[in-house]
Amino acid sequence: MIANFGFGVLVVSFLVTLYSVFAAIYGDRTKNAAMVESARRAMLLTWPLLTLTAGILIYLLVNNHYEVQFVYEVTSRSMPTYLKITAWWGGQSGSLLFWSWLMSAFASLVTLRKWDRDREFLPWVIVVACVTMAFFIGMNVFFENPFMQLYETFTGIQPATFQPADSVLFTPADGQGLNPLLRHPGMIIHPPMLYLGFVSFVIPYAFAMAALITGRTDDRWIRLTRRWTLWAWLFLSFGLVLGGRWAYDVLGWGGYWGWDPVEIAAFMPWLTGTAFLHSVMIQEKRGMLKHWNMILVILTYALVIFGTFLTRSGVLSSVHSFAQSAIGPLFFAFIGFTLITSAALIIYRWDRLKSETRMTSLLSREALFLLNNLLFMSILVVCFWGVIYPLVSELFTGQKVTVGPPFYERATSPLWASLLFLMGVAPLSAWGHSTVKTLGRAMWKPLVGAIVITAFIFATYTQKVGALIGFFIIALVLLVTVYEYWRGVNARQRSQGENIFTAFWNLTGRNRRRYGGYIIHISMMFMAIGIIGIEMFQSETQGTLAQGQSLNIAGYEVRYNEIASWDNMPAGVRYTRSSIDVYRDGEFLGELNPRIDYYFDSQQTMTIPGNRSTLKDDLYILLVDWEPVSSSGATFKIYVNPLVNWLWFGSLLFLVGIVIAAWPEKETERVAAKARVRATAKQPSAAD
Amino acid sequence: MIKILKAASTSTKLPLAILIALAFTLTLTLMASAQGPTPTDDEVNRIAKQLYCPVCESTPLDVCPTEACRQWRDLIRTQLAEGKTEEEIKQYFVEQYGARALADPPNRLASYLVPAIAILFGVLLLARGFQMWMKPSTTETNASDPRGEAKSVDPYVAKLEEELKKQK
Question: What pTM did the predictor assign?
Answer without folding.
Answer: 0.85
